[in-house]
Amino acid sequence: MTYNKELVAGKLRRWEKYLEDYRLPEWGEIPDIGLYMDQVVTLVRGYLDYMPPELKGEEIITPAAINNYVRKKIMPEPVRKKYYRSHIAYLIMVCSLKQSLSIPMLRTMIPNGLEGEELKKVYSAYVVRHRLSCVYFLKQVRMLAGGILDHEPESELSTADTNDLISTAAVASGLARLLAEKLLLLEGKSLEDGGSVELRRSSKED
Predict the structure, then answer these.
(1) Whole-model pTM?
(2) Helix extents (H) in the chain
């Protein structure tokens, strides 16, 4: 595949600028007045509007998806068909994570039934972690795309070839998802019933 270096560099710089300024809403910024389904869809799409227009063939949130999350007990049921701050906080976390995790894994990571201060604490911590992850991701992109962005190479992974950048990003994405899922599966386990054979053997030898 052939790519125009100036076009790719321009796209990377624009996305970098966008992510530098991007923030998920703080807990107190989420409305708690009771919104109907269509209002919630519009609101959450605005909160999570970091996908480029050309990649929006599949909407990040739809009424059908929300009903599915409620049915599968990933988030609380609406109250008389209205959604409040707690519902929207769940949706923000679920919709921003579903790009990387399956529905069963999301259910493990974000337990349903969190309320009040407990949910506020979980959501607020997620907002901070999301922001830190964006900053870390941008640093990795600058390093990987050093040749495209005309930076001095910072790593042997640094490349001026867009095909190499794509393949590296795809491999890293797959490994990151695998790591997240492997760690989620360890929840509630011990070395005896959740570790690998090698880890159990090493523990016994020690």
Answers:
(1) 0.86
(2) 5-21, 37-47, 63-71, 85-97, 103-109, 116-144, 162-184, 191-194, 197-205
